[in-house]
């Protein structure tokens, strides 16, 4: 009993440590993400360019995860991939201070997303070893809540720099500090937990399947539909500044509001999913789908009201999807499973971003309809996946 309790405590400390890493990491790249769209617009990029660059960046950031996950499973060098990924992911953000054209900025956006792709499957797979102790929803909820805390503080830090009329380059340069703190904390995590697989409960391993089941592919299809309707903040910030709804400072402040709400949403959704399952999925996706109509209402109060719904969407993406996939991981192929799932999710994100970028200047009603219907279309797939998972677990 004492050994089990010790394992549980060590597992939760690992979750918290990696959460702190992600807090500083999100502070860095979400701080940059809050102004990427406006910065590129100031360099001459159009709405279509901003949205397509954001979508292509997300596609790179998701598509490469299948490869990085496969490499991690084959080589066992998950910590190496994690360190390289975080290094590229984080240092590309303050490097935006040196970008003199939207093309250069786009390259750095792609680099930042590629770095995230290298480390994301390995981190999620390492966290999966702790889920038998604390519940899939709760583990990923705690980790997400910490990184969303960073995502809340990052835009506020950027807004503070812009408030003093320092401009975009100094705002990006300031983000070098949290980037270095994230890398330092990651080094501590590697030193204290060199073999995260040893944190798993021997009596209740979280990866029991021998192959990718029907439920896994249904989760991927559902994730793709959801991603099509989840708008990038680059396009949101472009819309907010170009429409006159906010100035330079207002856009990152609203992102902080959204991500701050995402912290609470992640904890509620994660704990709720562990206890109630499918009904929590239905409510969360339905709330997320309401975001786009409110954003494009043109009314300031409704725009503010839409921000918590973005937070719900982030919680679905960063907590709920991970918790569901963690329940159908094939034994010995955890990193690949997360990587493949993210690759499919990235395809959906790219399709949605390209479509929204083109529709933004041509048909706002069509853009709204696409976003709402795509997210609602994910619900039957999520429900089907949950039922398939239950059948696979009890054949």
Question: What does the model show?
Answer:
This protein is an all-alpha fold and about 400 residues long. It is built from 16 helices and no strands. Helix 4 runs antiparallel to helix 15. The protein is globular, with a radius of gyration of 20 Å. About 60% of the residues are buried.
Topology readout:
Layout: H1 2-42, H2 47-75, H3 78-91, H4 102-128, H5 131-134, H6 136-163, H7 168-174, H8 176-192, H9 214-228, H10 233-242, H11 250-276, H12 278-289, H13 291-295, H14 300-326, H15 334-360, H16 364-393
Helix pairs in contact: 1-4, 1-6, 1-8, 1-10, 2-4, 2-10, 2-15, 3-4, 3-8, 4-15, 6-7, 6-11, 6-14, 9-14, 9-15, 9-16, 10-11, 11-12, 11-14, 12-14, 12-16, 15-16
Mean pLDDT rating: 86
Enumerate the spans where pLDDT stays under 50 for 5 or more consecutive residues. 203-207
SS field, number of helical segments:
16
Q: How much strand?
A: under 5%
Shape: globular
What can be said about this structure in brief?
The protein is mostly helical.
Features:
single chain; mainly alpha; globular
């Amino acid at each position: 009993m004492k050994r089990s309790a010790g394992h549980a405590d060590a597992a939760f400390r690992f979750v918290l440590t990696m959460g702190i890493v992600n807090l500083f990491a999100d502070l860095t790249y979400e701080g940059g993400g809050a102004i990427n769209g406006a910065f590129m617009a100031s360099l001459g990029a159009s709405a279509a360019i901003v949205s397509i660059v954001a979508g292509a960046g997300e596609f790179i950031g998701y598509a490469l995860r299948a490869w990085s996950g496969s490499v991690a499973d084959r080589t066992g060098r998950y910590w190496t991939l994690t360190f390289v990924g975080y290094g590229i992911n984080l240092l590309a953000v303050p490097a935006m201070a040196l970008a003199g054209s939207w093309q250069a900025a786009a390259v750095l956006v792609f680099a930042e997303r590629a770095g995230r792709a290298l480390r994301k499957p390995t981190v999620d797979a390492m966290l999966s070893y702790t889920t038998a102790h604390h519940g899939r929803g709760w583990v990923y909820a705690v980790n997400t809540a910490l990184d969303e805390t960073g995502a809340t503080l990052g835009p506020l830090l950027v807004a503070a720099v812009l408030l003093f009329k320092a401009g975009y380059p100094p705002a990006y340069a300031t983000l070098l500090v949290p980037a270095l703190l994230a890398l330092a904390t990651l080094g501590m995590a590697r030193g204290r937990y060199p073999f995260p697989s040893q944190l798993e409960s021997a009596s209740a391993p979280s990866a029991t399947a021998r192959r990718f089941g029907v439920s896994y592919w249904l989760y991927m299809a559902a994730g793709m539909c959801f991603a099509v309707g989840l708008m990038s903040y680059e396009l949101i910030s472009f819309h907010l500044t170009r429409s006159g709804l906010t100035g330079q400072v207002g856009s990152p402040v609203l992102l902080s509001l959204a991500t701050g709400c995402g912290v609470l949403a992640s904890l509620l959704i994660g704990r709720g999913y562990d206890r109630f399952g499918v009904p929590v999925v239905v409510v969360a996706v339905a709330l997320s789908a309401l975001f786009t109509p409110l954003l494009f209402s043109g009314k300031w109060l409704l725009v503010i009201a839409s921000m918590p719904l973005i937070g719900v969407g982030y919680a679905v993406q960063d907590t709920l999807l991970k918790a569901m996939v963690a329940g159908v991981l094939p034994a010995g192929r955890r990193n690949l499973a997360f990587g493949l799932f993210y690759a499919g999710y990235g395809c959906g994100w790219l399709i949605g971003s390209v479509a929204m970028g083109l529709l933004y200047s041509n048909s706002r009603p069509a853009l709204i309809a696409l976003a709402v219907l795509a997210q609602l279309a994910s619900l039957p797939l999520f429900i089907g996946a949950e039922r398939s998972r239950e059948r696979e677990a009890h054949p």
